[in-house]
Amino acid sequence: MQQHDLNSINGTHRIYNLLRYDPYVKCQNRLMKQKDIPNDIAAAESPGRGRPRNQQTHDAILDAAREVLRLHGYAGFSMEQVAALAAVSKTSIYRRWSSKGALLIELYMEGLPDEAISESAKSLKAELRRYLLATVERLQDREWRTILSSLVAESQYDESTAALLRDKVVMPRRESGLRLLRNAQARGEIEADIDHEVILDMLFGPIWYRLLFVHARIDADFAERLLAQVNLVLFGKERVGKTAKKR
């Protein structure tokens, strides 16, 4: 390569760096579509200090995806929008996530409460309360609610997203809940005729219903009222099944 060509690339590279780190330009870039970095600049750029470039790209894509959802909701969420805001190519996104649903799954998993259901908890009532309140508290975050509702919407149209949602989110947590109920049954905390599957549906079905139809609040008061009704079935002296038999 000729010397004047190298000088041209290096000069362009310096201008690019000045613009990239200018606060005003960074702010503007979040509000408008961005072009990918020219190939000659990308080739000349060497990795900087801090996180590896691959991790920086990964994080930039996730940040951009969250921002697109915040600004435009699920209806305006697309890989093109995310790529533009993250200043990467769509190929860079698809190398990491095979679909829009896979990207949404990762955003969702990042926001899950740190602790899942504790299968070895000694008190079923206390553990259900702890986990349900933690879930409701997490849903107070509007951004996370948007991610979750977007993921559910995408799963209605894309079978691969539906499978990811079942395999990575729904079934692992459901299995933990079932084991918790079985353990409680084994130590005599609940009776043998309790339908574990229905109990889990009773606990979490109302939350999903309120999340999807947005007709009522999802808050701690709602969680306590919901738990009170479920506890009547789990621990009440006269449960629905026995009452029906007496009639």
From TrEMBL:
UniProt cross-references to Pfam families, sorted A to Z: TetR_C_11 (PF16859), TetR_N (PF00440)
Region forming the signal peptide: none
DNA-binding region, residue range(s): 78-97
HTH tetR-type domain ranges (all copies): 55-115
The UniProt record lists the keyword Transcription regulation: yes
Key words of the record: DNA-binding, Repressor, Transcription, Transcription regulation
InterPro entries per UniProt: DNA-bd_HTH_TetR-type_CS, Homeodomain-like_sf, HTH-type_TetR-like_transc_reg, HTH_TetR, Tet_transcr_reg_TetR-rel_C_sf, TetR_C
Record keyword DNA-binding present: yes
GO molecular function terms noted in the UniProt entry: DNA-binding transcription factor activity; transcription cis-regulatory region binding
Protein name per the record: TetR/AcrR family transcriptional regulator
Organism: Variovorax beijingensis
